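Summarise this fold before class:
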Amino acid sequence: MITAFVLIRTAAERLTEAAQEIADIDGVTEVYSCAGDVDLIAMIRASEHERIAEIVPGAINKVEGVLDTDTHIAFRSYSKLDTEATFSIGLES
């Protein structure tokens, strides 16, 4: 599975609507509003690079209010939360 993070700049008046429309796109697993240089960050999970190439320019960039995107492909995932979850299986009280 390929994971990509899409940094998205939106028109201020369309931020909420654009975020929901992006979240509804098949292949987009999460959308976060954030502070900083971008307005939204979307996470995409796809089985092949071609699918990401369809999702970003073919769907995200066509959402009304999206001004610009910058896509980053992930190579590996490192997470303290994943490790903690693995070792705590069955320890819930």
About this structure: The two ends are 33 Å apart (CA to CA).
